[in-house]
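Subject: Interface between my chains keeps coming out wrong

I've been trying for a while to get a sensible model of this assembly. When I model each chain on its own everything looks fine, but I need the whole thing in one frame so I can look at the contacts. Pasting all components below, labels as-is. Any help appreciated, I'm running out of ideas.
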Amino acid sequence: MKHWWKILSVMILLYVMTIGLMAPLSPGITSVTPITAKTGGQISVDVTGYNSNYTKSKEIIRAWLYLDTLHAVCSDAIKVIDDTHLEIAFTIPNDLPVKGERASANLLINTDKDGTSLNPAAISISRNSVNNSEIKADWISCSIDNLFVNEQYDYPFRNILGETIRNLYFHVPMWFGMIFILLASVIYSVKYLAKSNPINDIKAQSYAAIGLIYGVMGLVTGGIWAEYTWGSFWSNDVKQLTSVASLLIYLAYFVLRSSFEDTDKKARISAVYNVFAFAALVPLLFVIPRLFASLHPGNGGNPGFGGEDLDNTMRTVFYPAVIGWTLLGFWMGQLLYRYGNIRRKMYDDF
Amino acid sequence: MNIIQSTLYLVQKEFVLEFRQKYAISGILLYVLSTVFIVYLSIVNVRLPVWSALYWIIILFASINAVVKSFVQENSDRALYYYTLAHPNAILFSKIIYNFLLLLVLTFLTFGAFSLVAGQPVKEIQLFFITISLGSLGFAIALTFISAIAGKANNGATLMAILGFPVIIPILITLVKLTATALRLIQDTSNWKDITTLLAIDGIMIALAVILFPYLWRD
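Reply #2:
Try treating it as a single job with all components included. I did that and got this:
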């Protein structure tokens, strides 16, 4: 089986498309009203859930408002309206255990059916100048423990990301794929310089073309993702700028190729440029973004896309997606190379 | 004759040629002065971010015009004669050194002329001088090698800009950031990291240029 890796890439991508798009998100909280509260009072909070099954839970729904792991209050009463709506009553203690006029409390809901869902910084609590003597509650009255765990196969719910978290299987593998494919292109350029075999030049050119396509796809998928999460298709993020610059390098490579008539000279000079340009590409994609603030995860003080975001269920799709897209790219590159080779044999033109 | 000696002779030759003809260097200097003057005429009141942007745009175009003659505009028969006399890398080194010195003059002259007409807003002058010196070095290495590539094609001068800009961008982004720090547009404590990055990029580029040039010069 010479073509096993092509079959493998198709199988993996089918798996990525079906599992990556069909598996649900874990239950989450999309909105909470009101978003402000005062100390020493009772509030009733309307919660809208996402993918949640509040009516199917066997009356074990618990909710906490917490400032940090040591300071939490339990709900007084929970009223289930339907599967995605809850009405929760909280008593806010008289005191804030932090400095400053306000603190943001996180809302945590745990049910036996859905497991834990969290809305970070859900309610902003401000200090009330008057103490309410009827309130007996305090911040350490209720600890968060005995949580039910959701055993379903699903992807984490993140408030800004929502369903777009699935784009991780398409956007990030494009860049991984681009790097691997362009690396192959550079290796064939070096091979050409070592031994002037025109086949190596056609391979270098084909892989550079596919790498360019992957780069464009990476920009487009990233732009669509940014439209939904950062608010606009283009926001002059440093990674957007450097990736456009890296695409310019490879566009210049094709302009350079088209400016030669002698095929041997074309192959040699463009191989030299390909190697030199790759040396500019590496700092552009891996060093420069680290020097600047960026909206991307893992840059400019933002947490990396790891830990809770890239959890184990996502890894089961993400790593295969990287392998699948890379193999598909090599397959496309090979088709382009074979077409180029046929042209070379028929017309001596490539 | 070893490679260092022949490099020094070749640099000397570049200077001798330059002083005999003078049109190249005076052309570049006039280019800088007239650009600066046009900037002054069109934008009378130059704000800080604009100062940095204009400064680097002037430097970028002036250096491409300055470096383009090293391989692109050179007579190919005479070049072949040099290659019979000296090691190709000695020729490459001599061009890089010559272009570095030329760009150094260019950047400092532009800074002087620009400060005269648009004001001198640089707060950390030492950092700024380090930045523009490193910038000249990086531009000299990258553009000299690109001009060697572009010189092999028919439409060299156009190709020079197309191939040169994307390769220079990593250097330029770092330079612009350092300039912003020198102008105190941003507060930054990682200047040494940026300078090391610049030096590393320069190092990689010069190493690759040395490895790749022997494949390039032969026709």
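Reply #3:
Confirming on my end. Chain B has eight helices and no strands.
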